[in-house]
């Protein structure tokens, strides 16, 4: 039985891990930590969590926790993840992994030294729709990859306390939205990009609300676009042009949702022959959430049945690319 501790009474945790745990018999949510005792108690009662802590450090130190889910703001990822590793805990750390590549390296080194598991929560990465698209691209079906573009645009209102608009907490559109297509393109290419150009539109406090970047993956040029401003028109997709055909994956971040703006579709065209795979005609198992697949992957890693698809050098490389993009423009 995998016993899970939650760092923070976060809005994402019910969808990302609490609900997926309810569908399984090999894991439980054991404890929740919040610096507000009132908030921790209310959260524990709402989600039937047996134990609460009023400090993050106390949760990490508990003997009855095997896996820490770190959904705190990015500014709190590094030190608490390292602390968890020193206490022998596995960690599922939400994206973005850290504030910068230097922190990411420290986190990865700490887990490696402690011999613990550290996985980054890029939930889309574990869903069959992306795995199928990855198979198509890497099979050579559309030939050599000549150009790729990745987009994640969605309006995020600048409400009071919204961390995405607070730079010191790890805010910014590239950290919250752009990291998804960036990670997806890195994964599909199997190599790291050189940043050749970037443009950022910033709010008064300096946080980027829209970012565009031109990337060079050797023989493949790529463009990254992300926008959380008022003018954002919802889109999250990866478009690949090959020497023999084209392929596009739309809705890859939330491929399982039954919604006019969500759900996935894969489009492939080679020599005039077209292939479509959508949420509607995909196997029933594909209709499970990305978070269900993510939790299953984490548990299989902890059981020694598979190797992590995220974290480690992959997490460091993503943060290195984000740093490079933000350093330009």
CATH class of the largest domain: Alpha Beta
Taking pLDDT < 50 over at least 5 consecutive residues as the criterion, the unreliable ranges are none
Tally of alpha and pi helices: 9
Gyration radius from CA atoms, angstroms: 20 Å
Distance between the termini: 49 Å
> In what range is the share of β-strand residues?
25-35%
The total strand number stands at 14
Query: Considering DSSP H and I runs of 4 or more, what fraction of the residues is helical?
Result: 25-40%
Q: Round the mean pLDDT to the nearest integer and report it.
A: 96
What overall geometry do the principal axes of the alpha carbons give? globular
Keywords for this entry:
14 strands, 33% helix, alpha/beta, eight-stranded mixed β-sheet, Rossmann fold, Dihydrodipicolinate Reductase, domain 2, 329 residues, 27% strand, six-stranded parallel β-sheet
